[in-house]
Amino acid sequence: MFPNTHFKNAKKYWYMGKLYEWSEAILHPMTHAFHYGTCTFEGIRAYSTARGPAIFRLKEHIDRFFHSAEILRMEVPFTREEVIEACRLVVRENQLESAYIRPLLFYSYGNLGLVPKFSPVELVIGAWEWGAYLGDRAREGVKACIVPKRRIHNSQLDLSAKLGGVYVQSMINGTIARELGYDEAIFLNLEGRVAEGPGENIFVIKDGILHTNDRSESILEGITRTSLLEIAAHLGYKTKVAPIEKEQLLGADEAFFCGTAVEVTPIVRVADLSDNPINVVEFNIGDGRPGPITTRIAEEYTKVVTGQNPVFERWLTYVRD
Question: 301 with 152, same domain?
Fold first, then answer.
């Protein structure tokens, strides 16, 4: 029996076409993905709107889900439309007005050779209420550290796919950052430029220009990141997609993390552990408080995901017909 202690209001999950009680376990301990990380997942949010819960950019998430499965040489046992409907169903069945939704495709029980020749691909989807990923004080800004380890490089893996095994690096360095007293980690890439957080993209703002990087910098080009570029342009801000030097982050007027879980979270202080983790130097971003542009972007993002901006209504999939 599995309690839902850290999965608020989770009652049921969807597995291979059927709903199960949250506390019920059905996977074998020799499942291939448990041992090798041979899985792909998406993090998707649904928000409370005047028309009931709406899932933000569900189609785009499921398109990437299928792309990631292709990179993993998976034959997905469901169509895109079936996965979309299953995500809607899970939110309804758990009676959630807002939710974090986690679809997971994985190589299941069959064999434990590295190549999963006899392990079928299976799909599970869960949903629960999940608040601010970096804590309730995240809106006030977080303190991050640039870790010594470099991000997995795009010459090593296709980082346009969201691969479960890659997140081992994220877990290790995110944990280290917290052990050192920081809220989150920041990776540089092998070239020494800013890559991303363990599960977030990064924007820096200088002289009113919102600047983020692209897949050539060894990042996953997040759906939230792409959305914010469009939202910022709609608000009249200039945007730039180009490499980010470490000095540009440390000297920025403002900076923020973005992603489905973290949404828009200001970065107000950065410690540089990349060259000398013993004698750490810390830098305020701007005046060490959330800046006006970051605040405006966060406020507009909230309006978009909660159905208060008709320009971006096309990004919402309503849970109830």
Answer: yes
| Mean pLDDT within 258-265 | 97
Query: What does 114-134 look like in DSSP terms, one character per residue?
Result: SS-TT--EEEEEEEEB---TT
Q: Is 244 helix (H, G, I), strand (E, B) or coil?
A: coil
Helix (H, G, I), strand (E, B) or coil at 159: coil
Tokens of 42: 């998406």
Please list the active-site residues. 162
- Helix or strand (DSSP H, E) at 271: strand 263-272
Angle at 66 between CA 62 and CA 70, to 5 degrees: 165
Q: pLDDT per residue over 72-84, tens digit each?
A: 999 999 999 999 9
Same-domain status, 257 and 164:
yes
Contact (CB, 8 A) for 68 and 163: yes
The domain of 56 spans 12-128
Widest distance between CA atoms in the chain: 58
- Cβ atoms < 10 Å from Cβ of 169: 17
For residues 106-112, average pLDDT: 98
Give 254's contacts (C-beta < 8 A, 6+ positions apart).
Answer: 204, 205, 266, 285, 286, 290, 291, 292, 293, 294
Residues in the chain: 321
Whether residue 120 lies inside any domain: the answer is yes
User: What integer best gives the mean pLDDT of the chain?
Assistant: 97
Q: Is residue 6 part of a domain?
A: no
User: What band does 298 get if pLDDT is binned at 50, 70 and 90?
Assistant: very high
Residue 126 phi/psi, 5-degree rounding, is -120, 160
Binned at pLDDT 50, 70 and 90, residue 136 comes out as: confident
pTM of the model: 0.96
Averaged pLDDT, 152-181? 97
